[in-house]
């Protein structure tokens, strides 16, 4: 009888639904753990800037662009953490591979799936070339060991940031590529990240030393690496204010954050302090992004 069949089949259907839900939750948790370190550097500032620069848009276009960025940074982070498994066991044991949340082999399978989805999704959004360029650069950065040399690490990090902005802005503009003024902002942002992004390397000195990675905090005297970073923070703050003439209150806020960040980096050289200093750097970067609202109104 139909009623008997439903009664007999319902537990199986419920079990299958629960299994699917468990798998979905596990994948979501793994994605969060892989992406955790890039929430403040990519997943928050890139949507902020893209929203400012894309002009009028809608929720669907915003989410389309955010998902594009999400797929590409997730593919990068999985690759980076598979390659850096030994480093993470020393300095970041809470990450998914060293903590036993997933094996390196299974992470590779997940990476392959994410890359495939990213390529197909980019093809649908008219961003296939950008996606292939980004993923090729990601492979060179991680598997090709380009991240071992500070100059390649910095430049490629800046290029990756520009790819994120270009892709998300294009999605938010319904397939329309960024205008010339917007491209100027994207390039400026990439240059800022390329010249100051090594702020994150001070906190990773132990892990970098373990694998022989040559970052600026490793090859320069500590006082020079830290004071040169401080000078760059003030230089870029001055350049951005000169270019976009923000309100006085915002100028004071950015200069104050540059001063606090510089003081934090130069006062205490311990890696625990460097973690806090990097947090201040992220706040400085986020407030710098607010300067682009003026540009967005002019585009």
Automatic annotation (TrEMBL):
Main location: membrane
Transmembrane annotation, as ranges: 27-53, 59-79, 109-137, 149-169, 223-241
Record's subcellular location: Membrane
Alphabetical list of Gene3D superfamilies matching this protein: UbiA prenyltransferase
Keywords (A to Z) from UniProt: Membrane, Transferase, Transmembrane, Transmembrane helix
Gene Ontology terms for molecular function: transferase activity, transferring alkyl or aryl (other than methyl) groups
An annotated GO cellular component: membrane
Membrane topology type: Multi-pass membrane protein
Protein name, per record: UbiA prenyltransferase family-domain-containing protein
Source taxonomy: Eukaryota, Fungi, Dikarya, Basidiomycota, Agaricomycotina
């Amino acid at each position: 009888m139909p009623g008997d069949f439903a009664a007999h089949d319902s537990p199986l259907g419920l079990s299958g639904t629960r299994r699917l839900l468990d798998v979905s939750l596990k994948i979501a948790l793994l994605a969060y753990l892989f992406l955790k370190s890039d929430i403040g550097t990519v997943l928050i500032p890139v949507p902020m800037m893209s929203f400012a620069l894309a002009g009028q848009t809608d929720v669907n276009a915003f989410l389309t662009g955010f998902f594009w960025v999400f797929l590409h940074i997730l593919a990068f982070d999985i690759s980076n953490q598979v390659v850096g498994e030994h480093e993470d066991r020393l300095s970041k044991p809470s990450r998914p591979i060293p903590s036993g949340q997933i094996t390196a082999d299974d992470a590779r399978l997940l990476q392959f799936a994410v890359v495939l989805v990213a390529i197909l999704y980019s093809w649908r959004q008219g961003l296939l070339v950008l996606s292939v360029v980004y993923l090729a650069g990601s492979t060179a950065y991680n598997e090709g060991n380009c991240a071992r040399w500070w100059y390649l690490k910095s430049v490629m990090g800046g290029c990756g940031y520009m790819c994120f902005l270009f892709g998300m802005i294009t999605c938010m503009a319904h397939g329309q590529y960024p205008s010339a003024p917007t491209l100027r902002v994207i390039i400026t942002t990439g240059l800022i990240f390329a010249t100051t992004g090594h702020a994150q390397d001070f906190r990773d000195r132990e892990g970098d030393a373990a694998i022989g990675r040559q970052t600026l905090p490793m090859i320069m005297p500590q006082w020079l690496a830290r004071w040169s970073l401080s000078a760059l923070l003030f230089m870029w703050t001055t350049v951005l204010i000169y270019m976009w003439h923000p309100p006085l209150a915002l100028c004071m806020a950015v200069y104050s954050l540059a001063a606090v960040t510089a003081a934090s980096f130069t006062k205490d050289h311990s890696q625990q302090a460097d973690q806090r200093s990097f947090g201040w750097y992220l706040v400085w970067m986020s407030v710098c992004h607010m300067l682009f609202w003026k540009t967005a109104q002019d585009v």
